[in-house]
Each structure stands twice: as structure tokens, then as C-alpha cells.
Amino acid sequence: MVCLGNICRSPLAEGIMKDKIKKYQLDWEVDSAGTGSWHAGELPDVRSIDTARKYGIDITDQRARQFKTADFDHFDQIFVMDRANRRDILRLAPSTAHGAKVDLMLNQSSPGEDREVPDPYYDDDGFEMVFRMVDEACEQFVRQHV
Ligand code: 4NP
Q1: Global pTM?
Q2: Going by C-beta distance under 8 Å and a sequence separation of 6 or more, which residues neighbour residue 126?
Q3: Of the N and C termini of the chain, which has fewer Cβ atoms inside 10 Å?
Q4: Is 9 one of the catalytic residues?
Q5: Which atom of ligand 1 is nearest to the CA of 5?
Q6: Which residue ranges make up each domain of the chain?
């Protein structure tokens, strides 16, 4: 799960997907990262923590990190939150096959539409919408694999 800072959107996405993995008893590894390094080592934004908690998900074990090229080998699927994330991540792809692992998260719930998860950093009210969008996308993805 990849966004810009790895403190707002992708920590929610990581928490939501891990919650579904538990629910559906899947044996998957999920992690999140940011294209930027400014927030490395930080806890998720308190607004993400509070929103996740509202839905019974604890994301306080997460610490922000920057996406690294080795992630392309380690993970089978790389979900980005917006088109800028996609551009930045694809620049790092070692090959076309690695790049093919990258897709917008919301293409799971709205296939082919290239919809973005809006950055809620400057919008206190945006976190709830981010949660719902990502939850729906994760649910669709997981259902294709159970
Ligand atoms: P995120 O949100 O990419 O969803 O983690 C942001 C977090 C921090 C900043 C921008 C977006 N920032 O500019 O510091």
C-alpha cells in the first residue's frame, strides 16, 4: 500500500487489508510505504489512527517508511493511492514485469477508471471517506482471492 507520506492513506489501507486477511483467514503479508521520506519513523497521523479505531482496527504498531526498489521483488501486488504515487513508483520499477505489479487501489472497486484516493492531509473530514473507499476496494480484492 503506497501513498505520499505513509502517514494518512496507506496506513489505513494496510490496517484495513490486514483486518480482512484475519477475517478471511488468508496467509498474506501486507505492508505500506510512502514515495517520500519526510515522515519516516513516524506513527500514522492521529486522524488515521482515530478513524481506524472507530472501525475496530488498531494501526498504532505502524511506523512510516519510504518505498524502496526491493519492494518490487518482495511483493506480488503494489497498490498506489493516486496517480502521482503511480508515476513516482513506476519510475523506480526495475523492469516492465515489476511495473505490472502496480495499480491504483480504487481500480479494484472501479475497474479501469483510474480513480484516486484523495489526500486527506489538509482535510480533517476526508479521513472517513478515505476509509470507506479503501475498505470497499480491499473487500473487492480479497473476494477475488478467497
Ligand atoms: P499521505 O498524506 O500521503 O496519505 O500519507 C500526506 C501526508 C503528509 C504530507 C502529504 C500527504 N505532507 O505533505 O507532509
Answers
A1: 0.98
A2: 118, 119, 120
A3: C
A4: yes
A5: 5
A6: 2-145
DSSP 7-42: SSHHHHHHHHHHHHHHHTT-------EESS-TTTTP
Sequence-distant (6+) residues with CB within 8 A of 97 are none
Catalytic hit among 19, 71, 82, 119: 119
The protein residue whose alpha carbon is closest to atom 9 in ligand 1 is 5
Q: Which three cell numbers stand for residue 62?
A: 505502524
19-69 residue pLDDT tens? 999 999 999 999 999 999 999 999 999 999 999 999 999 999 999 999 999
> Any catalytic annotation for residue 3?
yes
**CATH code, 2-145:** 3.40.50.2300
119 catalytic? Reply is yes
Residue 66 DSSP class: B
Q: How far is the CA of 29 from the centre of ligand 1 (A)?
A: 24
The single residue of 3, 19, 86, 135 carrying the catalytic annotation is 3
* Pocket flag, ligand 1, residue 38 (CB < 6 Å): yes
